[in-house]
Design goal:
With about 350 residues, the protein is α+β, with helices and mostly antiparallel strands. It folds into 2 domains: about 150 residues, no CATH class; about 150 residues, Histidine kinase-like ATPase, C-terminal domain (Heat Shock Protein 90, 2-Layer Sandwich), CATH 3.30.565. It has 9 helices and 7 strands, in the order ααααααβαββαββαββ. The strands form 2 sheets. It has a 5-stranded mixed β-sheet with strand order 2-4-5-7-6, covered by helices on one side. The chain has a two-stranded antiparallel sheet with strand order 1-3. Helix 4 packs antiparallel against helix 5 and helix 5 runs antiparallel to helix 9. It starts with a helix and ends with a strand. InterPro entries: Bact_2-comp_sensor_kinase, HATPase_C_sf, Sig_transdc_His_kin_internal. Keywords: Membrane, Transmembrane, Transmembrane helix. This is Signal transduction histidine kinase internal region domain-containing protein.
Amino acid sequence: MNKSILNKFSKIPVHLLFWVIVWFFFYTFFSAGSSNQSFIFWFSTILSVVSIVASYSFMYQIIPDYLIQKKYSKFTLYTIYAFLFSMCVVLMTMVFGFVFFFNLDYQTMPALTKNPAVILVCVFLIVAIMSSYKVVKYNLKAIDEKRELETKILKTELQLKEQELRFLKMQIHPHFLFNTLNTIYGFALKKSEHTSEMILKLSNLLDYILYQVDEPLVPLKEEIKHLKNYISLEKLRFQEGLAIDLKIHNFNDDVKIPPMIFLPFIENAFKHGHQIKDVLKVNINFECIEDRLIFKMENSTHQKKESKKGIGLENIKKRLEMIYEDDFKLNITNNSESFKVYLSIPMK
């Protein structure tokens, strides 16, 4: 059997119990000052039936179809209809009791059963309670559905974000490999004794890229270790034509960062930097200050160029925006003598 049907059947005992309580309320309330228990029994039963019909009409028809759908004119109209119907039934019940139970003796009727205003208030009090329950239940359900929808949207956005990050990383890897393999190719043509050393260092870097870079965060010390491997490859390529200064201040072993954050900047220095007096100068500085990691890099250049930006730098900017949103600071300065990078990110 369908789960929703089972759920509806499970509510029947609760509803029956509620209407039994309502009947006892009517019976106790209207029996005050009356010794005709038979009349009170039938009077309470008829009022209970009226309350049931009006309540379920509001709960399952008028409120869902008109109030919740914001059809206020029709909701008002059907509310008036329900009131008139209830008033007619109440008046007919009073006449029925007056004729058959009290033999047209108006004075012997209980005072409360002779007052239509009191009777209608009692009936619509029950209807109001049931209708309020329905509205509250609907609002709670709407809140749950909204929260569930927001959760699904957030999960979808997170998945898209992760896919885009993965795509950006995949773009960085070929860029890095292209530069490094070109360097090894040049050494191989020269039959340099450093070729095997470069291949070994490249192997270590590939291991890092293939097996560790997919992690959302990696230790800073591991990132710097592999940056040093990359720098050593460039040292072998430039030989005496490279002057590089790498400084690390207030190093914290517990700091973790997203992988491949700094490599595109350093790659850019070697790819687009220019030698001045046959020497390419590159200064790299890492510093942990309170809860921020500061990365500074400067390389020599001979003129300010408006050339198109490299794939690596564009990707790293997108990654920083996706990972840190507004909680990072990146300044890139390119003038006639140097290319400077300043990056500040939160430490985790």
